[in-house]
Write a structure and sequence with these properties.
30% helix; alpha+beta; 4 helices; five-stranded antiparallel sheet
Length: 159
């Protein structure tokens, strides 16, 4: 009596029947070895996360092209609410305005009028820093300002 030979391929058991020289998987007789490979590849065929087409190439590939990868990530990272986008734009503008002033030794002075003329919005900051003496600096990322007397401001850069 001849024994079936077990062939394990990609986590699937295939039995070789020596007297038929055919391959069997789950009771289904397949005529050629290449049919087994095709069947296995269909079982594990990965689809592009963006467009759904079949992916060829590396085993860990998730997208069929750079276009699909970019489109997928743009949808994923899109700010779902207009509020977040508006706040980020406002902070970016405030940062650019503070950065437009030439700093000497990490600081400079300006007036409230000059800041407002450039479009600075005092409502939008990222953090506050209070010194041990109680002085409060208002920061937009690493650039900040300190309100002084007579509506003047000192602009500083955090080291």
């Amino acid at each position: 009596m001849t024994k079936n030979i077990l062939l394990r391929f990609g986590g699937v058991n295939f039995y070789i029947l020596p007297y038929f020289s055919h391959f069997c998987t789950n009771g289904q007789v397949l005529p050629r070895k290449c049919d087994i490979v095709e069947q296995y590849q269909k079982m594990i065929a990965k689809k592009c996360l963006e467009c759904g087409t079949e992916i060829r190439g590396r085993a860990d590939k998730k997208f069929c092209s750079d276009h699909c990868r970019n489109a997928y990530n743009n949808k994923l990272n899109k700010d779902s609410k207009n509020l977040v986008r508006t706040i980020n734009n406002r902070l970016r503008k405030n940062y650019r305005i503070l950065d437009s002033f030439e700093l000497k030794d990490g600081k400079t002075r300006t007036t409230k009028t000059r800041l407002l003329d450039k479009g600075f919005d005092f409502e939008y900051i990222t953090n506050l820093y209070t010194t041990k003496k109680g002085t409060t600096y208002y920061f937009v990322y690493d650039l900040g300002y300190l309100p002084l007397e007579n509506e003047s401001y000192m602009i500083v850069k955090r080291a």
